[in-house]
UniProtKB/TrEMBL annotation:
GO CC terms: plasma membrane
Membrane topology label: Multi-pass membrane protein
One of the protein's GO biological processes: transmembrane transport
Family: Belongs to the binding-protein-dependent transport system permease family.
Family matches, as InterPro entries: MetI-like, MetI-like_sf
Entry superkingdom: Bacteria
Transmembrane segments: 38-58, 92-115, 127-146, 152-171, 212-236, 248-269
SUPFAM superfamilies the UniProt entry points to: MetI-like
PANTHER family documented for this protein: ABC TRANSPORTER PERMEASE PROTEIN, ALKANE SULFONATE ABC TRANSPORTER-RELATED, MEMBRANE SUBUNIT
Provenance organism: Neorhizobium lilium
Location, primary (coarse class): membrane
The name this protein goes by in its record: ABC transporter permease
Keyword terms: Cell membrane, Membrane, Transmembrane, Transmembrane helix, Transport
Amino acid sequence: MSSSDVFSEAVSPVKKQRSDFLSDSASGFARTFFSSRAFGWTIVLVLLAVWQIVASIYPMPQLPALSDIYRTWVEQVVNGDLIVALADTMRITAIGFVVATVVGIILGFLMGRVTVIWGAAEPSVELVRQIPISALLPLLILYLGIADSFKITIVVLAASFPILLNTFAGARSVSKTMRQTAQTFQLSWLQAQLEIGLPAALPYILVGMRQALGVTLVIAVVTGMLAGNSGIGYYILQAQQVLDIRALFAGILTVAAVGYVLNAIFLVIEHRLTRWRTFSSGQH
């Protein structure tokens, strides 16, 4: 056997190991990529690129290029129209979300922990919950007009139920062991609810709040269209009526971006508030 053959046999296992390592690294990267948000964002970017290319090659009034929409968006931001409209909608969203959160948590938690309150409130809650918001609009406009009170009431009605129902489920999830612990430490009823019941229900409450946050923004936009006097919904409707398609898309994409950012911020807050629960689960 020649020296070159011996050298080749010695190098072959090294090449094979390197090839296996590269193959494993590539497959590991692929698994990580396709199971992460990066894959979803890649799809979004590809779709936006296709949109830009198609709209540039085949100009259509009903589908402007993204570059044109961006220029319109910058103009609307600079002249203040879009900022004012968005600020009005965010104000309604914030007020409605805060009120819905307070009402939903208090009523849902009490229904889950106090049998008398559950018996008194459950029929009314279930009856109102079955009524579509659209069916209440004529009645609310009759009593409240189209002022802010109308918009906030609609938002509160739509957003309260996800929080209420999830809080109720969380309040009912308190285990027998935790209740016995409260008795062992001779906690009062109020102390037991604040120190044991409420922390146990917190993950459920946050799920309901996250659901309600998306509903709140959507309803706030829709009420702007219905009231027809202010807000990003009114801005979008006005752009459609004058056939300003670029402004129309600018408004729609702004709502999408704001909704995504709000959800991302809430996820960070949720993670921080429930970090103790993740740590506790890891210990077991």
